[in-house]
Specification:
The chain has about 350 residues and is of the alpha+beta class. The protein is about 15% helix and about 40% strand.
Length: about 350
């Protein structure tokens, strides 16, 4: 069915030309079949003329097809944009192509807005712990997540929390399946991350991350030149095992006055700015209490005084000791010391 043309407004001119009709040019509405080049030029000129003459679609003439969608959105009212999250999460890898059976390292990278922080696996007396759940393809093996040493926060009410500012990367060493890779096969690596970001207020956040990497058909490993240096830099900040030969100290513990625990660290090289972050289990057993540091050069004594309501004496104390080297580098080591049972009277 042919459409009328003279009663639909200026925008009908271009429509009629595109349909092979003329109005005002051929007043009898006689169908014409112009050559394609002529029709295209005429349509373009008519569209421009209609826009100029009618003042655009808002003048009351018929609008182009895309316009009603914009009009209905404006009429319904558009929602205000969601506030930008103070934390941006990303899943990275030190490899760009996976070599079957060869170790690789995944990283969950959080970029944190200035003035904000997220929390360590033990958030302390304030906040919620950062949570990471990594999902890998079948026959991939994953090592436990590695956490850098946190920093200490003190809220206005005096509550002490542990966490990260600016940026943090949590690492997990992964051994891919050693089966042969099919041509064009892609392996999806996923991580569910949730956090509580705090500044003056606290805002929860969550991200579902995915990184899809091809398998190496030739059996070679290709390093990710962008992310591998980042992964390596954060790997050097991970706490070393305090019971290994790489430990910067030798630790011992004894009971002090008032039910306190005195942890002595004998350093191989004098540190600065020593701090202690208890594990979740240790904190549950001894509470936050009062932590006092006594330094005399090569020895640091950490006096942990549990509050009166703390649980019975634990079997061991565990956590992370962070310190600054003479060259200004911030490093850390895990600390686990067994507690001797007091002699019964």
């Amino acid at each position: 069915m042919r459409r009328g043309t003279s009663t639909t407004g200026c925008w009908a001119i271009a429509d009629c030309l595109s349909q092979g009709y003329t109005d005002g040019i051929v007043r009898r509405h006689k169908r014409i079949v112009p050559r394609p080049g002529v029709l295209a030029l005429a349509t373009a000129l008519a569209t421009a003329l209609a826009a100029a003459t009618c003042g655009g679609p808002a003048s009351g003439g018929r609008r182009p097809a895309a316009e009603p969608a914009r009009e209905s959105l404006a009429g319904e009212g558009s929602a205000a944009p969601a506030p930008e999250s103070p934390v941006r999460a990303e899943l990275i890898s030190d490899t760009a192509i996976i070599q079957p059976g060869t170790m690789m390292t995944l990283g969950v990278r959080l970029t944190i807005a200035p003035g904000w922080h997220v929390h360590w696996k033990n958030p302390g007396a304030a906040g919620e712990p950062l949570s990471v759940d990594i999902t890998l393809p079948r026959r991939f093996d994953e090592a436990p997540l590695r956490w850098p040493a946190p920093v200490r926060f003190t809220r206005p009410d005096g509550a002490v929390g542990y966490g990260y500012r600016e940026e943090v990367v949590l690492l997990s060493d992964v051994r891919p399946s050693n089966r042969d890779v099919d041509d064009g096969e892609i392996w999806p690596l996923r991580a569910e991350v949730s956090w509580m970001a705090c500044a003056r207020t606290c805002v929860p956040g969550r991200a579902a991350l995915e990184l899809s990497l091809p398998g190496s058909i030739s059996g070679t490993r290709l390093v990710d030149l962008v992310n591998a240096p980042h992964v390596e830099a954060w790997a050097s900040r991970m706490p070393v095992d305090g019971r290994s030969s790489a430990s910067p100290f030798v630790a011992s513990v004894e009971r002090g006055e008032g039910g306190s625990y005195v942890v002595s660290l004998s350093w191989t090289s004098a540190p600065a700015d020593v701090d202690w972050f208890p594990s979740t289990d240790t904190m549950a057993a001894v509470g936050v209490g009062v932590v006092t540091f006594i330094d005399d050069g090569r020895t640091t004594r950490i006096v942990l005084t549990p509050p009166a309501y703390s649980a019975p004496s634990p079997d061991s104390l565990a956590g992370v000791v962070a310190y600054t080297t003479p060259t200004g580098e911030r490093l850390a080591a895990t600390l686990t010391v067994a507690l001797g049972r007091p002699v019964e009277p």
